[in-house]
Structure formats: structure tokens, C-alpha cells
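Work Package 3 (structural annotation) set out to generate three-dimensional models for the target panel prioritized at the project kickoff. During this period the team completed the workflow that converts sequence records into C-alpha cells, so that structures can be stored uniformly alongside our sequence database. As a representative example, we reproduce one entry of 139 residues exactly as it appears in the project archive.
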Amino acid sequence: MEPEETQKAKKKGMFARIESRDDALKTIRDCAMGFFAIAALQAGIGYFIAPSLIIDAVLYALLAAIMLQWNSRVAAVRLLLIACFAVYVTVLNRLGMAAEGGNNIFLALIILWAAARSVEATFKVNGKYAEADPEPGVE
């Protein structure tokens, strides 16, 4: 493999470093799509089993849409706060200290990871990488 191909292979996925505006925008898009999937899952479960999950689904979908549309740091931080609360409630439920909440700690941690990556990406796209990358060779 050529060095460029190796570099491109390293930049794929949720665990890739955010090293450019394009990386940050891709991370925002991927995380938003993940939140839409979580919202759909929670809405489905909420419709059939636990109606209280519909509120979470609406919040995830609404904040993900705002984050995706405007690269919003506020939406990303709110998603992170909701994800932290979801992990907290899930841990309490697993320990038997709460009656409400999920049981899947891994899903809660994945949501937390996506929210943290969203915050990182939105802050970088609005800060460090606020301007589009210049064309190679142009100064």
C-alpha cells in the first residue's frame, strides 16, 4: 500500500482521529446517524413496551438533527449530558437502585462515546477547523 492509502485507511470509523475539517464533518454526520438509529430503536421500544422512552427518542432525534444541520456545539453538549444521564441511570438500574432505565450498559457506553465524539467534532469544526482546508499547494 502507498502511504496515502495507509493514511486513508487509518481515518475510517468512529475511533479515527479528527485531523481536518472533513474528518470533523464526517464524524458529526456519522454520530448524528447513530443518534437517529438510537432514536428509532427507542421510539419502537417506547411504542410497544415503555412509553417513557419516546421522550428520549424525540430528544436524541431533535438534537442530532440540529447538530447535523448547523454543526451545533450546544446540541452536541446536550446530547453528551443526556448520554451521561443515560449511563448513570443504567448503572443504577443494574445495581438495583432504580426501577426505571435500561439494562444494557454497553449500549449506554456506545451512546456516551458517540456523544463525546460529537462534542469533539463540533468544537473542532467551529474552532480549529472553522475555515475550509486550503487546496494542496495553495498558500
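The longest helix spans residues 21-48.
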